[in-house]
Amino acid sequence: MESWKKESFEWIKALAIGVVIVLVVRMFLFSSYVVEGISMQPTLQDGNKLVVNKIGYQIGDPERFDVLVFHADENEDYVKRIIGLPGDEVSYVDDELYINGKYYEEPYLDEFREQSVGGRLTGDFTMEELTGEPVVPEGMIFVLGDNRKQSLDSRIIGFIDQDSIVGKVGMRYWPLSEVGFKFYE
Q: Is 8 part of the annotated catalytic residue set?
């Protein structure tokens, strides 16, 4: 009987340690996120389940074209793609992205561009026209959804404070047929 109690205690202790480890990892390192809406199509679909790396931006800086989750307000988180970093001047001319005067391809838009009437997805704009600022301010980023015609992004809500970033999307794990780690191509 004493042996049974001792073994039970060891199992309970091991389970408690396991739960604490899982909670620490979930709270500080990684989080699960479910995509709601169509703003990131065709890259991400409504209902996709993602793993978000919460610590990546604590030890490194956001990079252009990363897909990330950020707090849009107290109640909602959005998933979008980083287009402009601090000091960048972003513009669109004839459906082509220019950052600091240099053209950038956006292969993740190809599928929608082929389906779009006239092949245009993103209206022409300059950073100053949208925000009144010529460049992305320090501590901020400029984000766009991949579904440019149906996205509430920096064109409407303005710059995103880097302190509101939850983390970088590291993996899509659902649906299983679409498991993936890369969201740039």
A: no
Nearest alpha-carbon partner for 108 in 94, 123, 93, 97: 97
Task: Output helix, strand, coil percentages for the chain, rounded to the nearest 5.
Answer: 35, 30, 35
Strand extents, DSSP E, the chain: 30-34, 49-53, 67-71, 77-84, 90-93, 96-99, 102-104, 125-126, 140-144, 160-161, 165-174
The one catalytic residue in 6, 8, 13, 39 is: 39
User: What is the torsional sign of CA 78, 64, 118, 114?
Assistant: negative
* Domains of the chain listed by start with CATH number: 32-176 (2.10.109.10)
Selecting among 80, 91, 151, 154, the annotated active-site residue is 80
Q: Is 39 a catalytic residue?
A: yes
| Residue pLDDT tens, the chain, 185 long | 677 777 776 777 777 676 666 655 555 556 778 788 888 888 888 989 888 888 767 677 889 999 999 998 888 899 999 999 999 999 999 889 999 999 999 888 887 777 766 667 788 888 888 888 889 999 999 999 998 888 889 999 999 999 999 888 888 877 777 776 777 65
